[in-house]
From TrEMBL:
The keyword Transmembrane helix does not apply. Residues 2-236 form the PABS domain. The keyword Acetylation does not apply. Homodimer or homotetramer. This is Polyamine aminopropyltransferase. It catalyses: S-adenosyl 3-(methylsulfanyl)propylamine + putrescine = S-methyl-5'-thioadenosine + spermidine + H(+). S-methyl-5'-thioadenosine binds at residues 31, 106, 138-139, 163. One of its GO terms (molecular function) is spermidine synthase activity. Keywords: Polyamine biosynthesis, Spermidine biosynthesis, Transferase. It comes from Carboxydothermus islandicus. Pathway: Amine and polyamine biosynthesis; spermidine biosynthesis; spermidine from putrescine: step 1/1. The lineage of its organism: Bacteria, Bacillati, Bacillota, Clostridia, Thermoanaerobacterales. GO terms for biological process: spermidine biosynthetic process.
Length: 277
């Protein structure tokens, strides 16, 4: 008998993958957590029925959420990730030579532990890297309690449901602003330009109320709804488009992000540019 997994991405659209087995399922205090083995994308982390990451395409999202901001800041020594319990974003951050400390603030300890067990290629940096500090905490509370502390904050959240709803609010972005140093930068994943135009518009407006430089960029992630994914960057001082190409750090292991992509990702097709007009 063939086994298939479907994520209903909208009331009218889904993604369906043939699977060989379910490696893990559990109900955590925050969400339904599963790891499944798919034929096309390899192991896949699923939360509340929604694809979070897969072995085959995780590099796009993780490189793009991390390196654009890290290369925009001239000295990103202290970086925080909110969410991101699979460890992929932290793995990218610690590649950057100027980073001295990478703090992961994930609300659900089980996501971290299950990722270490079933997705070690993604979670490797959570296992004994001296630059990494893992804190099991609510990111909303953390930013309220840590002012002026970070050079870069990356919001690697789930979709705006459950504990992540507030991670898209104006109040939260204000607290992120205050948690950054005077020249800090934030970036958030802001969903699909085909299916989530309101989320993008609202996040862009809310981030823009706090940050003098606000820019939208995108990348192609096949297992995310519609395959096209956006990120919104808010910066107090440094503009990602003013970076000198020769200063951009590209780790030899990168599979997506490079100096051309750094700028190209901000070149928006009309239908995306329209969302933030
Ligand atoms: N790359 C993914 C995506 O866009 O589908 C996101 C991956 S990561 C697994 C998202 C994490 O955010 C989850 O593990 C979830 O527990 C965490 N999270 C949700 N709300 C949070 C909060 N308020 N504070 C900290 N972490 C939170």
């Amino acid at each position: 008998m063939e086994l298939w997994f479907t994520e209903k991405q909208t009331p009218n659209v889904g993604i369906t993958c043939k699977i060989t087995k379910t490696l893990h399922t559990e109900t955590t205090p925050f969400q339904e957590l599963a790891v499944i083995e798919t034929l096309q994308f390899g192991r896949m982390l699923v939360l509340d029925g929604m694809v979070q990451t897969t072995i085959a395409d995780e590099f796009v999202y993780h490189e793009m959420i991390a390196h654009v901001a890290l290369n925009t800041h001239p000295n990103p020594e202290k970086v925080m990730v909110i969410g991101g319990g699979d460890g992929g974003t932290i793995r990218e951050i610690v590649k950057h030579p100027k980073v001295k400390k990478a703090v992961l603030v994930e609300i659900d300890e089980r996501v971290i532990e299950v990722s270490k067990q079933y997705l070690p290629e993604i979670a490797a940096a959570l296992m004994g890297n001296p630059k990494v500090e893992v804190r099991v905490e609510d990111g909303i509370k953390h930013v309220k309690e840590h002012k002026g502390e970070y050079d870069v904050i990356i919001i690697d959240s789930t979709e705006p449901v459950g504990p992540a709803v507030e991670l898209f609010s104006e109040d939260f972005y204000k607290n992120v602003y205050e948690s950054l140093k005077e020249d800090g930068i934030m970036v958030a994943q802001t969903e699909s330009p085909f299916f989530n135009r309101d989320i993008i518009k609202n996040s862009f407006t809310r981030i823009g109320k706090n940050f003098p430089i606000t820019r939208l960029y995108f990348a192609t992630v096949p297992t995310y709804p519609s395959g096209v994914w956006t990120f919104t960057l808010g910066s107090k001082k440094f503009d990602p488009l003013a970076v000198k190409k020769e200063d951009i750090f590209v780790d030899p292991s990168n599979k997506y992000y490079n100096a051309e992509v750094h700028f190209g990702a901000f070149m928006l097709p009309n239908f995306i540019a329209e969302i933030i007009k």
